[in-house]
Amino acid sequence: xxxxxxxxxxLQKVLAQAGVASRRHAEQLIVDGRVTVNxxxxxxxGTKVGIQDRIEVDGQSVQRAEGLHYYLLNKPVSVIxxxxxxxxxxxxxxLMRDVQVRVYPVGRLDYDTSGLLVLTNDGExxxxxxxxxxxxxxxxxxxxxxxxxxxxxxSLRQGVLLEDGKTAPAKVVRVSGNSNGSNLKLKKDxxxxxxxxxxxGRNRQVRRMFAAIGYTVVKLxxxxxxxxxxxxxxxxxxxxxxxxxxxxxxxxxxGL
Length: 256
What we know:
By secondary structure, this protein is an alpha+beta fold. The protein has helices at about 10-15, 25-30, 125-130, 150-160, 205-210, 245-255; strands at about 10, 35, 40, 50, 55, 60, 70-75, 105, 115-120, 140-145, 160, 165, 170-175, 190-200, 215-225, 240.
């Protein structure tokens, strides 16, 4: 253990960078006595550790982050937003086998939702991007069975009451009255395409919002995350590292 190690870093920072938890949650893990350094339980938040120190959380070794890494993935449908799946289904991490460091998805995209997903080993950034108080916007392109009336759009813009509370107001733009070039199966009502921007991240939120006002989402795709967008240049299932400028922009949006 290296409390006096001037060249070391604070333990909670190391845990966050390793993707174990957010900085705040890492502090709680330390206070709760769940973290050991070189076999000794550490509860002091001022503890510093060096590169040679062995860190464990709940008896599991923590792999120190070899620098911070950031990627943007265009997630296909039928892929799990998880690092692993007990049912053996394909995960977003499986799509990134060529990446030599362990990265984790920021938030979720449902199994049947496609689009842009950030993956990183920056635990503190992950926590802030996911927390609604930081107001990071996500834009979705939504195909629904129409026609969608003005009153329905206003309901989305004012917030919709769900079983876990009222949603924050959404930004809604009508893109198209129907989808005449789609491979989707049409029912008796035409498909309409909308773009919806939210800053919360509740489970299946967009689908539930539309269901609450009486509409069925047929297809859902995230087209923007914060300032990140690809304008159809990142193929489905492909990924790329974020540029330094993109990383700085993401971090500055959440006060890092």
